[in-house]
């Protein structure tokens, strides 16, 4: 537990390993730019158009009236915060930097770049869906964790698959296009904890990155911290009551040949308040080959991306920077040469 940031009761100074050059921690724009808020109780046609528009411009949006109860959202937020308040003895066996483990508790070392560390601890669950026997390695405290995480994952995965079906309707893909191998890989649930930080202006909770999966559904918590790249700047995401933040991963950009965007985002820290968020990721199966769908390719619009097996994409992901959409197009050629 000595590597866990939250295991130290209070931090009065920032260790050097967390300090970044000023040009890597530029403040967000002061301009007011809000993520689109999509009301899923509106007509299906209206919701579909709103998702497509958001995906083409920002790659991010928030959804309300999504069918997941406020109680389920509150339970997930509460059990996540409760976990990080547990005594160290109740968590120590979960600590691991082994990314192949299905259940692990790790700190910012997983996102090391040049020896720098990020101000974040994370409890990660990665398992086949439905859960089945995967829960045998899950922590038994807090006592409701298993029940709450299972229920939350079931609900948020259902929401993600419905959003993908809406995208299929709007883009002319078969409605079940993402039902098989493309959306049938491990479900990953991250409970992220960003302790109060003594100097948020010189460190990061998470680095600028694009998610490598298909789609992410985020319960952002009440403390702001998420920022999204927009027109060469960063915009702050203000949490909306009872809303989920949704963003498109790189595999969705590849499938749509760049029609939908996977956009860089980062997490900033807070000097006064800890922040806990919960992210659920939809991913392809390891052996799934992913490339632009035929519906998005023509003589006038040739493929922008190579077709790759998802396990190969993951293997190279942390070696070749694949942050922005432009980098994704350029560097997938490097990935192709590595595989």
Automatic annotation (TrEMBL):
<dbReference type="Pfam" id="PF14226">
    <property type="entry name" value="DIOX_N"/>
</dbReference>
<comment type="similarity">
    <text>Belongs to the iron/ascorbate-dependent oxidoreductase family.</text>
</comment>
<dbReference type="Pfam" id="PF03171">
    <property type="entry name" value="2OG-FeII_Oxy"/>
</dbReference>
<dbReference type="GO" id="GO:0046872">
    <property type="term" value="F:metal ion binding"/>
</dbReference>
<protein>
    <recommendedName>
        <fullName>Fe2OG dioxygenase domain-containing protein</fullName>
    </recommendedName>
</protein>
<dbReference type="InterPro" id="IPR044861">
    <property type="entry name" value="IPNS-like_FE2OG_OXY"/>
</dbReference>
<keyword id="KW-0408">Iron</keyword>
<dbReference type="InterPro" id="IPR026992">
    <property type="entry name" value="DIOX_N"/>
</dbReference>
<dbReference type="InterPro" id="IPR050295">
    <property type="entry name" value="Plant_2OG-oxidoreductases"/>
</dbReference>
<keyword id="KW-0560">Oxidoreductase</keyword>
<feature type="domain" description="Fe2OG dioxygenase">
    <location>
        <begin position="184"/>
        <end position="284"/>
    </location>
</feature>
<dbReference type="InterPro" id="IPR005123">
    <property type="entry name" value="Oxoglu/Fe-dep_dioxygenase_dom"/>
</dbReference>
<keyword id="KW-0479">Metal-binding</keyword>
<dbReference type="InterPro" id="IPR027443">
    <property type="entry name" value="IPNS-like_sf"/>
</dbReference>
<dbReference type="GO" id="GO:0016491">
    <property type="term" value="F:oxidoreductase activity"/>
</dbReference>
